[in-house]
């Protein structure tokens, strides 16, 4: 994720000398164009921190268009003031990725010609021309505000007429931002860095340097400008093997740090980090609630008992195939027809006992054999 700091007035390159002579600095469309060209092709995000009182209309619209035409995922956060044309740059990001610090302030107003502006000789015709230009510029600005905030033209025009600052809560109401960045308390102590924590520089070897950046580096070298440490990307490997990149200068990650990608990540120390719109919104400590643990154990035992019950009542795979085949062939009626209706007679015996003797069981075969012998005796006996 590329970090873009817009913390100066917006001015054309030709007007930068005026700022330098007064000890100030400005940012122009070529500066932003050079920054976008510097971003690696595989980096699809630009995170803007905005602190500007606005400036040149043409330059601001060019910056707005360049950011939206970059094809990158734009997010923007108001860290101090966003006034006039700086609010146009803020709207380059979609509403869900626009935020502001708690004490940030915004200002929108109708366009005007500043004192000392070169407008030529003032005649009635010239006044009409200037009036027409200002009305067209106001209409252009209102159309953009309505389109990007979703607020009504009447409400926005009324706010512009007040020419007064409004806070982050009002900015949410007007549709300029969608959220306020929550405050994060500093940690009491700095924990040791995990062995899987790697710090990688976000700098690129072939970085393009703008004119303003060159003057800044010259000021640092001469000792008239204080060097500002650059944030680094801390690449953290989560418990699932994913990578979470958090940008900060040093110390432990905190709520409010820029991070990517969005999502919920469980670190190896058990903490859960939630990233929304490129910012850490919550860091949850590991849960140590014994009741939750016992509830999970009880649920596991319940599921195991249910599984055992299902197994005991389940039919074997072979049984299931046989039943399915019988049902397909015609069910019980087909089964009776296929196997026949013959039922073998059960074995029986007739007791034959003489007086004074114990009764012994005589089988049906033995009885039939005796009857056949008696019959043959009568058949072949000779008459006397």
Polypeptide structure, described:
By secondary structure, the chain is an alpha/beta fold. The protein has three domains: 2-180, Alpha-Beta Complex (2-enoyl-CoA Hydratase, Chain A, domain 1), CATH 3.90.226; 197-284, no CATH class; 302-339, no CATH class. Helices cover 40% and strands 18% of the residues. The strands form four sheets. Strands 1, 4, 5, 6, 7, 8 and 9 form a seven-stranded mixed sheet that branches. Strand 2, helix 1 (16-21) and strand 3 form a beta-alpha-beta unit. It is elongated. Mean pLDDT is 77; it is low at 186-209 and 342-354.
Q: In a few lines, what is going on in this structure?
A:
By secondary structure, the chain is of the alpha/beta class. Helix content is 40%, strand content 18%. The chain has helices at 16-21, 29-38, 57-69, 86-90, 124-149, 153-162, 168-174, 211-222, 290-313, 317-329, 331-339, 364-380; strands at residues 2-6, 9-10, 26-27, 45-52, 73-83, 98-100, 105-107, 166-167, 179-180, 197-200, 232-237, 243-248, 259-260, 263-266, 272-276, 279-284.
Derived structural class: alpha/beta
* Total individual domains: 3
Q: H/E series, N to C?
A: EEHEHEHEHEEHHEHEEHEEEEEEHHHH
Compute the number of helices.
12
Which CATH first-tier class of the largest domain would you pick? Alpha Beta
List keywords for this structure.
alpha/beta; 2-enoyl-CoA Hydratase, Chain A, domain 1; 3 domains; seven-stranded mixed beta sheet; four-stranded antiparallel beta sheet; 12 helices; 16 strands; 18% strand; elongated
């Amino acid at each position: 994720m590329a970090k873009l700091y817009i913390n100066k007035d917006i001015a054309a390159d030709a007007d930068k000398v005026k700022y330098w002579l007064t000890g100030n600095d400005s940012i122009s469309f070529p500066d932003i164009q050079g920054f976008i060209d510097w971003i690696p092709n595989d980096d699809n995000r630009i995170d803007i921190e905005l602190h500007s009182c606005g400036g040149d209309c043409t330059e601001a619209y060019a910056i707005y268009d360049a950011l939206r035409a970059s094809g990158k995922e734009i997010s923007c956060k108001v860290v101090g003031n966003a006034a006039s044309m700086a609010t146009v740059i803020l709207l380059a990001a979609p509403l869900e990725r626009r935020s502001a610090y708690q004490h940030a302030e915004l200002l929108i107003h109708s366009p005007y010609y500043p004192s000392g502006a070169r407008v030529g000789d003032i005649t009635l015709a010239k006044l009409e021309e200037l009036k027409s230009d200002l009305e067209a510029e106001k209409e252009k600005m209102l159309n953009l505000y309505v389109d990007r905030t979703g607020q009504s033209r009447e409400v926005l025009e009324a706010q512009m007429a007040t020419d007064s600052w409004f806070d982050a809560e009002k900015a949410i109401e007007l549709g300029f931002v969608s959220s306020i960045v929550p405050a994060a308390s500093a940690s009491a102590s700095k924990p040791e860095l995990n062995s899987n924590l790697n710090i990688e520089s976000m700098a690129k070897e072939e970085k393009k340097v703008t004119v303003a950046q060159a003057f800044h580096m010259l000021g640092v070298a001469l000792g008239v400008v204080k060097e500002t440490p650059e944030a680094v990307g801390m690449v953290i490997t989560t418990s699932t093997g994913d990578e979470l990149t958090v940008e900060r200068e040093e110390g432990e990650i905190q709520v409010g740090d820029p991070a990517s990608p969005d999502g919920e990540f469980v670190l190896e120390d058990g903490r859960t980090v939630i990233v929304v719109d490129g910012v850490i919104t919550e860091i949850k400590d590991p849960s140590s609630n014994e009741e939750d643990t016992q509830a999970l154990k009880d649920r596991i035992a319940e599921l195991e008992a249910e599984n055992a019950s299902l197994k005991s009542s389940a039919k074997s795979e072979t049984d299931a195939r046989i039943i399915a085949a019988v049902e397909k062939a015609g069910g019980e009626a087909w089964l009776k027809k296929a196997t026949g209706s013959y039922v073998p007679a059960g074995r029986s015996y007739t007791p034959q006992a003489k007086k004074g003797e114990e009764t012994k069981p005589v089988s049906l075969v033995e009885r039939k054999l005796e009857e056949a012998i008696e019959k043959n005796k009568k058949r072949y006996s000779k008459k006397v």
